[in-house]
Amino acid sequence: MNRRDWFRLGAIGLKGLIGLVLAVPGAAYLLSPLRKRREDTTDFRRLARLGDLEIGRPRSFSIVDEQRDAWVTYPATPIGTVWLVRQPEGAEQPVLALSAECPHLACKIKLAGDGNGFVCPCHASNFTLDGSRVKAISPRGMDTLEVAPIDPNDPNAEVRVKFQRFRTGTEEKIPLA
Ligand code: FES
């Protein structure tokens, strides 16, 4: 190989290197919204501090989130509601989290007038404070949501809940993707 060939070979190598340097961040950028979206769906959300909740008195919390498709992020809007019920001292889990979305047809479940249970206004399904069915057309009880571990002795402990949706109209609790 003469000097000219070496020069050509060097130029080709350099072009390849520049292409690689440009391609790596480009690919990362293109994939990142999809990756971020997957991470978001497994997030626990901080809804309250333990001291904000009274034993046996449910409180509702809106879940607000940014909507996004693959590339565009839209302003934050309410996407659901969660009922938090603080449990009596000594309970295995200090706080119970229940989705307010009715398992029948997804109407919003409210607190009953006497505060001792829940009711779905659409077809009058009734639930106890632990989400079990009483008189209900709903095929299953209210959907429980995962709560991150809480120190029951710390009133400042954060109550963090994994918000999820489940299929409606089925006896089985099936998470939506
Ligand atoms: S949507 Fe709740 S009972 Fe029908």
From TrEMBL:
Keyword Metal-binding applies: yes
The organism's place on the tree of life at top rank: Bacteria
Rieske domain: residues covered: 84-159
Membrane-crossing segments per the record: 6-31
Entry GO MF terms: 2 iron, 2 sulfur cluster binding; metal ion binding
Keywords: 2Fe-2S, Iron, Iron-sulfur, Membrane, Metal-binding, Transmembrane, Transmembrane helix
Name of this protein: Rieske (2Fe-2S) protein
Organism: Tautonia sociabilis
